[in-house]
Design brief:
mainly alpha, 34 helices
Length: 749
Amino acid sequence: MNNKITTHLPVASPSFSRWIIVLLSLCFVNSYDGDFVFDDTEAIVNNDDTRVTPLREIFKNDFWGTRLSHKQSHKSYRPLTILSFRLHFWLRQDSVPQDYHVVNIALHGINCLLTLLVYNVLLGPRGRDISFYAAALFAVHPVHAEAVSGIVGRAELLCTLFTWLSVLSYDHAVRARDARHTWAAMAGCAVCASVAMLCKETGITAIGICAIYDIIVINRIHPIDVIDRLLKRSYVDVRRLWKPVWYKSTVSRLVALVFVATTLLSLRFSVMGFSTPKFQPLDNPASFMDNALLRMLNYNYIYCLNVWLLVCPVWLCFDWSMGCIPLITGYDHRLWAVAVFWLTLGALIAYAFLFRRGETGRYTTVGLAMLMVPFLPASNIFFNVGFVLAERTLYIPSAGYCLLVAVGLQRFSTRFVLPKESSIAYAALIALLFTRSWVRSDQWRSEKELFQSALSVCPLNAKVHYNIAKNAADAGNVDLAKLEYREALRLNPEYAQAMNNLGNLLKDNGQLSEAVGLFKEAVSLQKDFATAWMNLGIAQSALMRYEESEASYFTALRYRSNYPDCFYNLGVLYLERKQHDRALKAWINATKQKPAHRRAWTNMVLLLDDLGSYEDARADELQLRTNALRTPRVTHVCKYPILGRTEEALETASEALKLIPDHAPIYFNIANILGKKGRYQEAEVQFKLAISKSPTDPMIYANFGVLYHRWNKLHAAEQMYRRALQLKPDLYSARNNLQKLYALKASTI
């Protein structure tokens, strides 16, 4: 059989082909100015690891900022991806979504070029034409939209980058002429594979790709050959599979790969505490089926859907859980899809085996390996995953699919001698996929568009309706939010998160009893749902069921000890019960856990100021009684304790400004305290600082007017009152004080 495939398709020059690949990779550029959407909020915006967490602590937390040892951790260990997010914040001192999107788009372009290089390495010089067509398809495939246009897809992009670098380094090790260069390249391969795994767990599969490359491409050994020799039970025959020149070095490289893989897996499991993550049935329903046969059938149907997304990427959805893919529980027409899937895959495997002496068979084997090996971590074979189907997990496997398509195109063109027609058809396919990717990347620019786009794909997905409701609530559309939360609960009556969020809306709307019922049902479904316990405590406090509220807060803290918002609300409860010392202690705990907790700092300053004012008034009253009775027993009563509380408020405010220097209410409260103490000039400075931080807050101007009023700077006071009324015409205090000022002016004329 001829080892060389005759090409009839046009082939671009190497330099020109690279430019074409780069241009095609820009199909996702439409998302460059997108916002933080979906998982981006939890992984970046609300994750302290991307901003303030000490760097060494990042290596102890999962991708979402939860301690790996915590029972609620997803065990997704991707510290280098988090450090890449941290670099954005360090450069900008802020989280600007456009920065993240631009880097993702650039990484995809780099990955496309590296994919072309990897294809060239795997296929050799005679496969350069196939490499170009496969890389072009990889560059524009719409299934990559989630990985490129979703910022958290950075994990896939970085993992792919270092996976390909690992393969290229391994190729250098194979081609090296001396042992020193060989083992230097092998060390580079191991380092790149390690970095890939620290970007995302699937990076470990780089080792498998390198091993298959060595066996199939370099040594030209096919599985069927090994089976033939093993059936003959002849060690000599098996050894003859390797060329004598390569035998010793090949075994050494493969042993090194096994050692690296074993070491990386051991370290990975040790970081996890040798425990697997605990997922809910809602995350991956098939994994919780008791019947092993049905469980495997559902897994296989999910494999079919993954392949279908590669073949026909029309149905794309940000989430495929919660009813999007109904379980197969008996005879189902979808079983025919499973049968077709395995017949097709079996045919490809058989083709690779039967044509083991030709280049086409070898290329097919390499394509199947690139498709299947990187997908293994998401296959539920070795361990259960926390999702049903995730498009981002197809980023690396799609390279194998694209290679298989290009091999098929080349084979078709060779057999039927239709180069022009094949080229036109392929160009049309690339243009179609480019357009689909452009449209899909636009949908990833905002949560509203992203969530709405999912309705046509998964209308029965409760999570889709949940996210639409959440987005509507954030936009102030409470009625739509309530409607969508109720729809999510109709589709999934045990959706605890939807109960919690709907309960919050009802609580804010004054429907406290119904809210309490939802919170209680949520925590009955999910005992360790700390957020629902806290919200239950807030609603119970509003109903003045203080003991129940306190118990709910303590339960939330039992399940999540590091919970500053819960400590804050506990402090509010103690304030309502006039347990001032306990309130202060709760807020201090909140600021210890979250040093920039603005509301806790503000409330501490206000409470200390109020306590100082109360004690001041109480001391004046006692002093008057002392003078009236002329009794020496209370002559020790003075204002020193009062000044102590007031000074404590000022000291607390100064400490807060070190952590939140842009928080206007702190300056505002300092100004009020200084004004009451008669330190008008200092208070004036603080009011001006407050205005510089929040120039549209009418209360600052109103109180600034009071300061000038007391200071007898009537013209300045009038200006402040007028400015406050411009911002808020119905501000009673400013209007009332302005009338008093006019009356005072009239009386002095």
